[in-house]
Design brief:
Low-confidence stretches: none
Mean pLDDT: 92
Helix content: 25-40%
Largest sheet: 5 strands, mixed
Strand order of the largest sheet: 2-5-6-7-8
Order of helices and strands: EHHHHEHEEEEHEEHH
Shape: globular
Distance between the termini: 37 Å
Number of strands: 8
CATH class: Alpha Beta
CATH architecture: Alpha-Beta Complex
Radius of gyration: 20 Å
CATH topology: Lambda Exonuclease, Chain A
């Protein structure tokens, strides 16, 4: 599914992941080359420590999902929610093959994305999109950096996907942000300070982006290289050598 290339004359729906949509917003040329010509950006090294933190957090919240009780982090932050119990929760989390899927009829695209977690507000019964993040930096973690726009778009896209599956979804998403502490001795243990960060999302950008994205795919030639794209600049310099 993920390796299939877009064919303008095909009536079959074309599937795109959340990361591919974000790729379009970063650089339409790279997006076109990847999805229409099969020339993908070089793969990044896997963030194994981040993945380990994600897995441990999922295991931890699953304990409270099974009991249908609030996690201590939710109690501490006075969030009226519990982990959402749904038969497809594991499929929703599987970003490589499944995830939450939504068909977008105007573009004949199927969009999908793998969520880290979903909670449910015990007062409003609205679903809450949750994303796990891990880092190690001095000071408090936040969402204030310009490059973190990708984090915000990520949860907004998940909100859009769930709404397309007839779920009532809260505008407020949460980031469970784990910050590795660089103090003391290692002793085969890495300690974290976990912060819960609320973010009020707005998914109104998704629909127009999908229309622009589809128009890009329908073009006969790729868009011009972008000066703001690291990959485009690198290729340009290589060709000049």
């Amino acid at each position: 599914m993920g390796s299939r290339l877009f064919k303008p004359d095909s009536e079959e729906s074309f599937t795109l992941s959340r990361s591919r949509v974000d790729n379009f917003l970063e650089c339409p040329r790279c997006f076109y080359l990847t999805n229409k010509l099969g020339i993908a950006r070089p793969s990044m090294f896997p963030f194994n420590l981040n993945n380990a933190v994600d897995e441990l957090l999922k295991n931890e919240f699953d304990v409270y999902r099974e009991k249908q009780e609030p996690h201590p982090l939710l109690i501490e932050n006075k969030v009226n929610a519990i982990p959402y119990q749904h038969p497809d929760i594991e499929e929703w989390r599987e970003s490589l093959r499944h995830g939450v899927k939504r068909f977008h009829e105007p573009t004949n695209l199927i969009l999908r994305g793998g969520l880290d977690d979903v909670w449910i507000d015990t007062k409003t019964n609205q679903l809450i999109v949750v994303d796990y993040k891990a880092t190690s930096k001095a000071g408090e973690v936040s969402l204030d950096a310009d490059w973190q726009i990708g984090y915000k778009r990520q949860v907004e896209f998940y909100q859009w996907l769930l709404r397309g599956n007839s779920f009532d979804v809260s505008d407020t998403a949460y980031f469970v942000y784990c910050n590795g502490i660089k103090e003391g001795e290692f002793n085969d243990q890495l300690r974290f300070k976990t912060k819960l960060i609320p973010y009020k999302g707005n998914d109104s950008w998704v629909e127009p982006t999908l229309m622009e994205l589809k128009a890009c795919l329908m073009e006969k030639e790729p868009p011009n290289a972008s000066e703001s794209c690291t990959y485009c600049r690198y290729v340009k310099k290589i060709l000049l050598v």
